[in-house]
Amino acid sequence: MTANLVQNGFDKSALTSNRRNAMKKLVAAITAxxxxxxxxFAGGPVVVVEEPPPEVVQQQxxxxxGFLPILIGVVLLCAVACGGGSDDPEPQPAG
Length: 95
What we know:
Elements: H1 2-7, H2 12-40, H3 62-82
């Protein structure tokens, strides 16, 4: 077959140089595509994560818990200090 190609004016070295040129073009095209694709995805995906809103917790005042025992103590102290007398009139000395 190579003898027929040489007789028809085809040179074997010309065929190998055409193959080399074709391979060089193919390698150059693949390299350009791979570099272009890597630059397109260089940043990566942007993932946005929303944080939940902060919870507002109202604290109970510390005085509301201790108010009732203090009030009861004041009422009892007033009852002891103000009361204790009898409603009976004092007996008058005879005479």
